[in-house]
Specification:
alpha/beta, Nucleotidyltransferase, domain 5, six-stranded mixed β-sheet, five-stranded mixed β-sheet, 11 strands, about 20% strand
């Protein structure tokens, strides 16, 4: 399947399920929910607006492996759908317990690609009462971008946001050189309404190009599941991913060299960061916003290769669920760092759910303007 981009895209032309009871805070009518049903995981956040951001009240995350077998059959399997329904029932209980009225529940690449994806959405609504939307790749890219807005450096003039998912990887290149430094985070936030911004007196962030590559940690792994040698499989995955970037604008024109920042959001990126920091227990406050050099990333990836499959399964920073996916994610990450004109990556422990929350709250006007 070919990478996807909008008709307007072109160069400068335009961890474990949380089952504990959740307290219902005063004013729970102000609560918002965001659910992301991906190729590998089902994740949800329930949050309350606070200042220019939000406070998380409850959350849920579980590996459901919805895309298992999709590469071979083109359909979601009976077992993966059953696992997903079970997870969504827990989400429905949390939404009801917290009396959430404002919510956005979405499904991504696995359901976009599956022949029975739409039928599964109908089944979910029938069995759980939850209505999920299968979103387009462009909206998925928009949500990844706005979730990372708070991590953009004041010195940045060109930004690449990379969201490595289970079934696809979204890349968005944004030029904010014409936006005053104090307004850059807000200009990026305004992209929730679309990559092509209406003309106004307010300087806008300019999307130079974006692409959705139908290769994520699960789908890329499945492409090379028949290669037995660990190192050879990793090299092939990295090369193959780079080949799928051939039509992305930076490969056809001069790349920005100065004041350029890459922000990476995914379980792969946060896992590599946790390994680099040597964390015995994951700590979001230490990972989110961390900047890593290419050399530091390569060192961690080489340590993963040296461990082998058994060592990766036993490593607490990787964990059982992610051990089968970390090398395909690392292959994507290494290919990206090899291709772009910077030797640093900003780590984002945030993604689609946060973007969904920001978009809803921004549209409702309940977020304060200003620096995040």
């Amino acid at each position: 399947m070919a990478p996807k981009r909008s008709d307007g895209a072109g160069a400068l032309e335009r961890k474990t399920a949380d089952l504990s009871p959740a307290p219902v805070p005063p004013g729970s009518n102000d609560l918002y929910a965001a659910l992301d049903l991906g190729t590998n995981s089902c994740r949800m956040l329930i949050a309350q607006p606070r200042g220019s951001g939000f406070h998380v009240v409850d959350s849920f995350s579980k590996s459901v492996q919805l895309g298992a077998g999709l590469e071979k059959t083109g359909r979601l399997s009976r077992g993966s759908m059953t696992r997903t329904i079970q997870a969504l029932r827990i989400c429905q209980q949390k939404l009801r317990r917290n009396k959430v009225r404002r919510m956005r529940l979405v499904a991504t690449e696995a359901c976009r690609r599956a022949l029975n994806g739409s039928d599964f959405m109908a089944r979910i609504q029938h069995e759980t009462g939850l209505k999920l939307d299968i979103i387009r790749p462009e909206e998925e890219a928009q949500l990844a971008v706005i979730s990372c807005a708070p991590l953009v450096s004041p010195k940045t003039e060109n930004l690449l946001v990379v969201d490595i998912g289970g079934g696809s990887t979204e890349l968005v290149w944004i030029d904010i050189s014409g936006v005053p430094k104090k307004d850059r985070a807000q200009a990026i936030m305004r992209l929730h309404s679309g990559f092509v911004q209406a003309k106004s007196d307010i300087p806008a962030a300019k999307v130079v190009d974006w692409i959705s590559v139908p290769l994520g940690v699960a789908t890329l792994r499945d492409q090379f599941s028949d290669v037995e040698d660990d190192a050879a499989r990793f090299a092939l995955m990295s090369w193959f991913f780079e080949e799928n970037l051939a039509d992305f604008t930076p490969y056809q024109s001069a790349q920005p060299q100065e004041r350029f920042q890459i922000v990476g959001t995914s379980g792969t990126v946060t896992t590599v960061a946790a390994s680099y920091l040597g964390l015995k227990r994951y700590d979001r406050t230490k990972v989110d916003g961390l900047r890593m050099t290419s050399q530091q990333i390569d060192k961690v990836i080489h340590s993963y290769l040296a461990m082998g499959p058994g060592g990766r399964r036993a490593d607490p920073r990787i964990g059982q669920d992610r051990s089968a996916l970390i090398m395909s994610g690392a292959a994507i990450l290494q290919a990206l760092m090899r291709c772009w004109p910077t030797d640093r990556l900003s780590v984002a422990d945030r993604g689609l759910r946060e973007g969904l929350l920001y978009a809803q709250m921004s549209a409702d006007g309940v977020l304060e303007e200003g620096i995040f």
